[in-house]
Predict the 3D structure of the following.
Amino acid sequence: MSSAKEIRSRISSIRDTQKITNAMNLIASTKLRKAKAELDQTRPYFNALNAEIKRIFRMSDKIRSPYFYPPEGSTALDGTYGCLVITADKGLAGAYNQNIIKETMKMLQDHPDTKLFVVGEYGRQFFTQRHIPVEHSFLYTAQNPTMQRAREISTILLNGFLGGSWQKIYVLYTDMKNGMDADVHLERLLPFHRAAFYNRNNDDSGSSQTIFEFEPSLDALLDAVMPSYVSGYIYSALVDSFCSEQNARMNAMSAATNNAQSLLEDLQMQYNQVRQAAITREITEISAGAKAQKRKKQKGS
């Protein structure tokens, strides 16, 4: 059994660790609320963009755009794919990073001709250490998703897509469904299916029969709107991933704090037992010494 001094040292160390995990829990909670608030502020703009894209498709069935599959339906697009992988900058977030890496490796196995675009230091380090080529690594932190960074990412992805460097673009991110669960999503960003926007039976504005005139043309207008929509999609993925990371870190730090409390209770019980045993031993030694002195006096008399 450990000595009382060793147990006190362990108790002090665990209490210090508990303070750190509790602080990290509170920090993650604050960051989560801030990110959600920023996303809510930008959401109305992109909802309006979505409504306008739907309006454009309601006006014509024959619009052709490089951002969409052709009107006659989806075609097999074999060739090089691009994939934006969103990870965290560090660990201590449960299985958050491992789940993203697992899905990325699965995609590389299913389609080896995939170019990776990585956000987050954890992903950059993982692929570098395993000599997995990365087409472009965005060297800014995943801890501060902004609309400007989303535009920079979308510009690089769109330039390659419109230039024919890759046939499809995917986004691999984590979506927080509720306060407890988060799922890894592999979504095809480009090209879009028209069915995602075009639906004559679903009129969001209540004026499906209204005739609009678009200048210079529906195709040109759609091509001008889609880059902003793609940027908004990427920004939403960045924020969703960031919120999921903070939620995972909150859960991990909460579990660590609770485990530390359980360890403290066990160690406190061990300390009490060691201390009680030491007191009992001292009392026994004092009592034995007193008896020995008493017998010595009796023999002397």
